[in-house]
Amino acid sequence: MPALYRALWRPLVTEKSSALYANRKVYTFQVDPRATKPEIREAIEHLFAVTVRDVRTMQMRAKARRAGGLGRGREGRRPKWKKAIVVLKEGDVIPIFEG
Predict the structure, then answer these.
(1) What does the pLDDT look like over 61-80, one tens digit per residue?
(2) Strand pairing class (81-88; 26-31)
(3) In the chain, what are the domain boundaries?
């Protein structure tokens, strides 16, 4: 059971994900990079009491970053992360995306 709570990190609410939700009722989450599609499906179905029809995942690559300013700039990388795009059964909704 605790693994279900570790699979989902947070919902992604951006302009692009909001447009997907408005047009196609598709939900987007940031998930644990080690989570598999069946684990993501099980976590969403258990936590939100909905039926998942499809799960698509993608690895988002790490990006270089540079912090400038006074003094010497520091270089580094943003970490890589995993995105899950979830389609639910017709009529099911997740309330955190409503509003």
Answers:
(1) 998 887 765 556 677 888 99
(2) antiparallel
(3) 2-90
pLDDT tens-digit map of 77-97: 889 999 999 999 999 998 876
CATH number assigned to the domain covering 2-90: 3.30.70.330
Answer whether 66's CB lies under 8 Å from 75's CB: yes
CA distance linking residue 18 with residue 20, whole number of Å: 5
Query: Can you read off the two tokens belonging to residue 37?
Result: 């599609």
Please tell me the pTM assigned to this model. Answer: 0.84
**Which helix H or strand E contains 98, and what residues bound it?**
none
b/e map of 41-79 (b: 16 or more CB within 10 Å)? bbbbbeebebebeebebeeeeeeeeeeeeeeeeeeeeee
